[in-house]
Amino acid sequence: MKKLLFVLIILYSFGASAQSFDKIKLTESEIPAGYKLTDEDQCISIQACTFYDSPEMYGFLIGKVKSKEVQNFVNNKNSGSIMYFEFEKKFEQEGFLQGLFWGGKKATKEHPEQILVKDKIVIVYSFPLENDLIKVSQKKVESVLK
Length: 146
Prior knowledge:
The chain is about 40% helix and about 20% strand.
């Protein structure tokens, strides 16, 4: 009985994380015209892809990731990824991510990732600078995670 209860608690905790991303991920109807979802990685820089694939490498600095998901988008002009992370505790290391992704304090053409932090949620946008899809996603995230 204890094992069953433990399994149910674990399954519930995974479901709760996925549900929180479902509220902020873009749906098919919200995706701007010309973009399509794909299963293939579309990160602009290797730093963003590496961070998504292995955030535990940085766990001693940034904390433990509770869950993560990604949405990859393609279109004729530019493609990219939105990476969603939920940390166990409030995320307070945005400066570390800026250094990791940009090597400095602002995005560049070669390293255009944008970071949005809301308490325990971190969203990394890996798209070329000034992207419409980012604006649509940020507006949704801001309205859901007030």
